[in-house]
Amino acid sequence: MLRTTIATLLATAVSLAIAPAMTEAQESEAKPATAMPGAKKSGRIPVDGVDYYYEIAGAGEPLLLLHGGLGSIDMFGPALPILTKGREVIAVDLHGHGRTTLGNRPIDLVDIGNDLATILKTLGYAQVDVVGYSFGGGAGLRLAVQHPEAVRRLVVVSAPFAKDGFFAEMIPQQESVGAGMFEMMKATPMYKSYVAVAPKPDDFPRLLDRMGELMRRPYNWAEDVKTLKMPVMLVFGDSDMIRPEHIVEFYQLLGGGLRDAGWMRENMSRNRLAILPDLTHYEAFATPVMAETVLPFLNGVSNAPSWAEQVK
After folding, report:
1. Helices (H), ranges, 124-187
2. What is the pLDDT of residue 33?
């Protein structure tokens, strides 16, 4: 599902105009020791042949933060100060991404969902809230489906529940991802950010092959979505790569958008849908608006006004 989202970052790299290259000045800047400023803990946890890297920053209720395809913890830079202000953020570089090793396993979101459960248990977290973007949204969804006891609230940002959720023209691009794109990818922020932190920078072509394999597999997790019992929020850009019809279907699978909520909110779904204006798939993760949008939901509060309270 969200696996294809990965492809998005990848596949749009096919037409590189979407991802501007970093300047030489940016390249020469010293990289921080950790991706999250003020991180109080970082380390590695081996799980089934993959050496996962994680960082923990902030204080408050625990929040697991999962990045998009060909990205890393670092891609959340603009949102991190907002999230860590009132939350203990556990950020993980996913299988083969960022500082986490690629190993010899296929990249598979079902497997990653299980890996994340092991990581949380190892770190001592019985239950967390989860925010995942694109590829990370798929990983967060699989964690919630396979280990529902570990997830209190789930936010899926800019990711579908089935492969056909993407606009039709995106799917062939996603399926073409592979090592043959390596030379073209060298000009992108995806490659530059990878080689800056990866344990084995030369693994990038292999990572492209693994991601291509992932995106060529069919999937439809509609029945899994229906099983979710924890509150779920879906977040998309109004110009996302996910079809609007698919977004609505996703929300309806969760029980939302099926009827009027009622004057007293008596028919209100516990789940939420947010469409962020003036944003594409390639920008949703980087804007502070994303963090500001999901926090009330994660905190279990509503900012909805009451008409009755305005009438004296």
Report:
1. 135-146, 170-175, 182-185
2. 67
- For residue 286 the two structure tokens come to 């980087």
**Encoding tokens for residue 179?**
């090592």
Whether 131 contacts 294, CB under 8 Å: yes
Give the C-alpha separation, 251 to 258, whole Å. Answer: 9
Strand partners, 236: 275
Q: Is the pTM of this model over 0.85?
A: yes
3-state secondary structure of 116: helix
Would you mind telling me the total number of residues written for the chain in this entry?
A: 312
- For residue 182, the tally of other CB atoms under 10 A from its CB is 15
Token duo for residue 43: 């380390």
**CA angle, corner 58, sides to 53 and 60, nearest 5?**
115
Give the tens place of pLDDT for each residue, 4-44.
444 444 444 433 333 333 333 333 334 456 899 889 999 99
**Per-residue model confidence as pLDDT tens digits over 198-238:** 999 999 999 999 999 999 999 999 999 999 999 999 999 99
Strand (E) or helix (H) holding 25: helix 24-28
Q: Contact 95/50 with Cβ under 8 angstroms?
A: yes
Helix, strand, coil in percent for the chain, rounding step 5: 40, 20, 40
- Looking at the DSSP assignment, which residues form a beta bridge with residue 237? 276
261 pLDDT more than 80: yes
Helix (H, G, I), strand (E, B) or coil at 206: helix
pLDDT tens across 274-298, in order? 999 999 999 988 899 999 999 999 9
Contacts of 220-226 with C-beta under 8 Å, sequence gap 24+, read 220/1, 220/161, 220/162, 220/163, 220/164, 221/1, 221/141, 221/145, 221/161, 221/162, 222/161, 222/162, 222/253, 224/141, 224/145, 224/161, 225/141, 225/145, 225/161, 225/250, 225/253, 225/254, 226/253
